[in-house]
Amino acid sequence: MQIEINKKVWYRHIRAIMLMLLVFCISCKDKEVDEGNTGEPYDPSKPVELTEFIPETGGMASQVIIKGKNFGTDASKLKVYFNKKQGKVIRTIGNLAYVLAPRLPGDTCTISVVIGEDSLQYEKPFYYETKVHVYTVAGTPEEKKTVDGTLVEARFDNPFYLAVDKEKNIFVGEWQARARIVNEERNSVVTLMNVSTAGEMMSGCTDAKGEVIYFPMNGMPYYYEFDPEQQWTPRRINPTIQPGDNIDLSGKYSFTVSEVDSMIYTITTRGELVKINPKTRVASLVMKDILKDRIQTKLQVYLAFHPFDKHILYFVNPSSMNPADGPIVGTDKIYTLNMITHQIDEFAGSGVKGHADGPKALAEFNNPCQICFDKDGNLYVGDTDNYCVRRISTDGIVSTIAGIPRTKGYLDGDPEIALFDRFWGMKIDEEGTLYIADYYNRAIRKLTIQ
Length: 450
Fold this sequence. Notes:
This protein is about 10% helix and about 40% strand. The protein contains one helix and 38 strands. Strands 17, 18, 19, 20 and 21 form a five-stranded antiparallel sheet that branches. Strands 22-26-25-24-23 form a five-stranded mixed sheet, with no helix packed on it. The longest helix is centred in the first third of the chain and has 34 residues, at about 1-35.
C-alpha cells in the first residue's frame, strides 16, 4: 500500500512539473505575440470570439490564458467566470487575456467571458484540481499531558472540540473543562481555564462578529463565554429559562449562532431546539420533539447555519453514543430545519453505516459528528468512525477530501496519505482552512484547501 501511495505522490509531482513547463512554454510563445501586438480597445460593434484556453486543468491562482478576439486592452472591463466564481483578469491585449483561476469554483468548470453587452462561454470544460494538505499545528500522540508554550513544546490531554475566531485564534476544549488558546502567528499555546467539573466542554462557536467564543457544557445547565474585551477571562453563564418553557439545558453538545438574530442555538438531548440571548442570557424554547418520530432515545446533535440560506439550520445526530445512555442509535444522516416553517427534511446520507461517496442521498457515513460550512456553501463533515473529512459540494456530491476510510493513524501530508484517529471537533475559518481537534492523536491539525 505504501508503494502505491508513493507512486501517487510521485505521479502528482511529475504532473505538476510538466504543467509548469507547459505554461512556461506557452507564456514564452505568447510573450512573442505580445511584443508584436499591443492589441486594440474593445469595439462593441464587432463580435467577441472565443477560440481556446490553456491549460485545461489547474488549481487556485493557476494562470489560464484565454484566446479569441475583441477582448480589448482594459483588464478591468473584462470579466471571466469559472462556473459562477470570478477569476482575476491580469492583462488583456485584444486577442489574449491572462486570468488567475479562483478558489474552489467546482471540479468541472465552464469558462464564461463577459465584456460590455457580450457574453460567451467555451464548450470545452476546465478541470479544477483541489489541493489539500494536512499539517499538525501543535501536539503529539506520544505524550498525553497539558503543557503550554510554543507550538512545538505544547502538549494536549485529548483535545475534544474547538472554535476559531476571525483573528485565527484557535480555542480548544479538552476533556471536562480545560480551555486552551492556540495562535500560530504568535507561536503559542496558553491555558485559559482549568476547572474540575462533572460536565464536559463541548462544541463551541463564535458570535455573529467572529469575536466572542461560547462553549457549551454537557451535563451542566451553563456555558462558558470568552470575550476578547475581557482578555479572554472565562465567564460561566447560567441562562435564565423563559417562564413557562420546560427546557433541560444540561444536555447539549453543540452551539451555533444565527447571523439573522445573533442568538445562540442548540438542540438538547431531549430534542428541544433552544435559543439563548447572549445579552439578556434568557433561554427560550423554539421547537420540541426534534426527530421524535425517528429516534426514540437521547440525541447528540451538532449543528450549523447555512451561509446563504441563513434561516436553514443543518444538523446531524451521530449513530454512536455513550453506552450508559442506552443502545447505539442514530441515523448517520444530516438534516435541515427551516427556522421559519419548522419543517425538518433529510439532506444527506442513506442511513447505511459505512463509507461511500457520490450523490448525497446515496452517500454513507459512519458516526458523522461536527459539521461546518465554508463561505461558498460547501458543507464539511467530520466522519468520526471513518477517520476522514468529507465534503458535500453545493451541487450535492459527497467526496472524501482527507483521510483513508476505516484506517486510523497519525500522518501529515497529501490527502491520499493523511491519517487521523477519531476526531470530533472541526471548524473552518474565513479563509477556508479546516482545524481539527484530533482526539486520540492529542494534536491540533489543519487542512488547507485550495
